[in-house]
Design brief:
The complex is a heterodimer of chains A (226) and B (192).
Chain A lengths: L1 H14 L12 H6 L4 H25 L8 H23 L1 H7 L1 H4 L5 H11 L4 H31 L1 E2 L2 E2 L1 H5 L8 H21 L17 H7 L3
Chain B lengths: L1 H13 L10 H6 L4 H30 L8 H23 L1 H7 L10 H12 L4 H29 L11 H16 L7
Helix pairs in contact in B: 1-7, 3-4, 3-6, 3-7, 4-5, 4-6, 6-7, 7-8
The chains are: A mainly alpha (226), B mainly alpha (192).
């Protein structure tokens, strides 16, 4: 029973407490780039979750085989293979999403979240725990992207998942679906997250921006003080 | 010559990698605190971008396409970039230790900079010729440096500003980036 609970915790921590985008500030590039529509956000989130799940499982299974010195190239190859795989799957089954994600699909390879989780979690934990961690982080990322996409689509285009919003539809604020709006929306959402999380027991989450991305050691020390 | 200039300037200004394509946000937010480190990062990224383009272009057109292996692009390119960053680091350490010292920390970060992988993939996607690809990489790198340097100035001013507690740190930085991005929107339509 106790074992089960920790696995559930592995999943839930990625969604709220250590949300990769809003709390740990990883993977900013896709967050900003593809969220002009809520649907794109979900697609990107799920694609990333798939890659994360695959790479976390493989890396944690191989963690004792891969020599420490070449682990970074090895991780990169594993991640890139899964990205190629998801690229084929999307091209075959959801071509419209494939077109709208475009180059950012390839760029999942260098998404800090995936590399960060591989380095921080999968290379140190067992297969099942790593899979749970990947699912949680992936869902957290998807939810953040969905939120961003919804806000930008509703305000910027006056519609949401195909529904048109009465007043905004006639007066869309185009700026929100432009690059500048992406920065602005993300800034606002992070500010709101800060405000909300500060009411609860104060927890110092120090992440040196994405500076720590490739090594992500700062994030690991700052994020997981359980 | 004219098309070269258009590619160079559009990669630098209208299609600025950071502010309109959202590539390389991580170093943009992480390294833009000080002017000299921002400029150093910009130079290093430009250099790696050009080198990576010079290497990946022949690999794609000379090895992968004739053998029908285009789908391996991502895997091969990222490996080439990782390798190149290592190589640059080692070479720089031996030959120009002064530059290495000032850039040292930022060099390994370039591997995970999506702008570098982005530029190599975009060159292939847009069907540029070899020379055009290099010009595009140069423009992309210079544009990256430009936005980093401009933004480091903005951030220095921000340090003296009295910002509400909730917005301190990343939120304020992102909103400032949004304003800088609006100013870059002024360049759009420059070449149409």
């Amino acid at each position: 029973m106790a074992e089960k609970k920790t696995l559930a915790q592995e999943i839930s921590k990625g969604i709220i407490k250590e949300n990769p985008t809003l709390v740990m500030l990883l993977g900013m590039c896709p967050t900003l780039a593809v969220t002009t529509q809520a649907m794109n956000g979900i697609g990107m989130g799920l694609a990333t979750t798939f890659v994360l799940l695959g790479s976390n499982i493989v890396i944690s299974a191989l963690r004792k085989v891969i020599p420490d010195k070449v682990r970074i190239p090895a991780f990169i190859v594993i991640i890139a293979s899964f990205v190629t795989l998801i690229g084929f799957l999307l091209e075959g089954f959801v071509p419209s999403l494939y077109d709208s994600l475009g180059i950012y699909l390839t760029l999942i390879t260098v998404n800090c979240i995936i590399f960060g989780r591989a380095e921080m979690f999968a290379s140190k934990n067992g297969v099942i725990a790593s899979a749970c961690d990947a699912v949680g982080m992936g869902l957290g990322f998807t939810m953040a992207l969905f939120l961003m996409g919804s806000v930008r689509e509703i305000i910027g285009a006056g519609q949401w998942m195909g529904l048109s919003i009465p007043v905004l539809h006639d007066n869309p604020m185009l700026l929100f679906i432009m690059p500048a709006g992406g920065f602005f929306t993300l800034g606002m959402i992070i500010a709101i997250t800060n405000k909300l999380s500060r009411k609860k027991p104060p927890k110092e989450i120090v992440c040196g921006g994405c500076e720590g991305c490739p090594m992500a050691e700062n994030c690991g020390k700052g994020g997981s003080n359980e | 010559m004219k098309t070269m200039l258009v590619i160079l300037l559009s990669a630098m200004l209208t299609d600025n990698f950071v502010l309109s394509k959202f590539m390389g946000i991580c170093p943009f937010l992480g390294v833009s605190k000080k002017l000299d480190s921002a400029a150093g990062m910009g130079v290093a990224v430009t250099f790696v971008m050009i080198c990576a383009t010079i290497v990946t272009y022949p690999i794609h057109h000379g090895i992968l396409v004739p053998n029908g292996l285009e789908y391996l692009d991502t895997v091969v390119f990222i490996l080439v970039i990782a390798l190149f960053v290592q190589l640059v680091e080692t070479a720089m350490k031996k030959t120009i230790p002064a530059l290495y010292k000032s850039l040292g920390v930022y060099l390994p970060l370039i591997t995970t900079n999506c702008a570098v992988l982005g530029v190599t993939v975009l060159n292939i996607d847009n069907g540029y010729s070899f020379v055009q690809s290099i010009v595009n990489a140069l423009g992309g790198g210079l544009g990256f440096m430009l936005s980093l340097v401009i933004f480091s100035g903005v951030r220095r001013k921000m340090e003296y500003a009295d910002i509400p507690e909730t917005f301190k740190g990343v939120p304020a930085t992102l909103i400032a980036a949004s304003i800088v991005s609006v100013s870059f929107m002024g360049f759009s339509g420059l070449f149409s």
